[in-house]
Amino acid sequence: MASVESQLTYLIEEEKLAHDVYVTLGDLWGAGIFDSIAASETTHQDQVAALLPAYGVPDPRVDAVGVFTDPALQSLYDELIAKGSQSLPDALQVGITIEQTDIADLTETIATAPADVVIVLERLLAGSQNHLAAFERQA
User: Fold this and answer.
1) Which 3 state secondary structure label does DSSP give 48?
2) Is 72 buried (19+), middle (13-18) or exposed (0-12) by CB count in 10 A?
3) SS3 breakdown of the chain: % helix, strand, coil, rounded to 5?
4) How many C-beta neighbours within 10 Å does residue 23 have?
5) Digit-coded pLDDT (tens) for 63-110
6) pLDDT tens track for 15-41
7) Which domains are delineated in the chain?
8) What is the value of pTM for the model shown?
9) Max intra-chain CA distance, the chain
10) Coil, strand or helix at 56
11) Alpha-carbon gap, residue 131 to 34, rounded angstroms
12) In this model, does residue 1 exceed pLDDT 70?
């Protein structure tokens, strides 16, 4: 089981990944769904960021779009952008993949997280479920 510190470090960058992918694909395809969900992902990052000080976790995020400190997330970002750049249907599928991954990761983390973290992650989970439904409607 991962420590709450490592879970928070990963989750905030995972939310940044969703944001950055949606900003990039929104710019590429001009589809409004990416812009609106990217804005929501900023809120998700803010919610996780608010937890970091209580656990002594430094914010791992880099300001530049598409740049990550976690090598696995960097690789995933690169793969998702390559796929989403092929066509709008592929870009929508990338959104579905991101939200499905977020839901799985959040569900796993909620199972072992402290109560204050669970409260935030349950809000993020509900948001990701809404985002998934929105992408599925568009696909």
Assistant:
1) helix
2) exposed
3) 80, 0, 20
4) 19
5) 999 999 999 999 999 999 999 999 999 999 999 999 999 999 999 999
6) 999 999 999 999 999 999 999 999 999
7) 4-138 (1.20.1260.10)
8) 0.96
9) 42
10) coil
11) 10
12) no
